[in-house]
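Narrative of activities, Objective 1.

The group set out to show that a structural description can be obtained from nothing but a protein's sequence at a throughput compatible with the screening campaign. Below is one input-output pair from the validation batch, recorded exactly as produced.
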Amino acid sequence: ALGVVFLSVIAVVADVWPVPFTLFLSPVSGGVMLPLLWMFVPARQRAKPHIRWRFIYCIVGLFCLLGVFAVFFPLLNSLLANTDDIGWQAVIVAVFLLAKLGFEKIGLVLSARLGADAMPCFVFVASSCYELNLCVSLGSGFHWLVFSEL
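Output recorded for this entry:
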């Protein structure tokens, strides 16, 4: 929601709609505004030291989510769409899969710190973002060998 406010301000100031590079501006603007979520935590809860650490772990998880799925994967999609060599396409798809596995490892570390109650949301958002990026990469068209690697 915070990213929508930022994009709306850009649209009004620049007098342009849709805002160019929305897919890249939204995660960055939302990521910058994530620490403002601390203001929505009740004051009684903010005084507890373990809540501060839980909040920091949540922010780290959200930054990892934005970094992997909203910045790194679109860059890999662009690289995959502009590469004609089958070997490099296979390497890029392998990097996709390694990044997903690395993100799952981050989820395991966060679940040890935050508990299991935060993980269904984390897994749902991560799988949705991964599937969205996978659809974009599959739609760009590449060799069947690379498709079989997936």
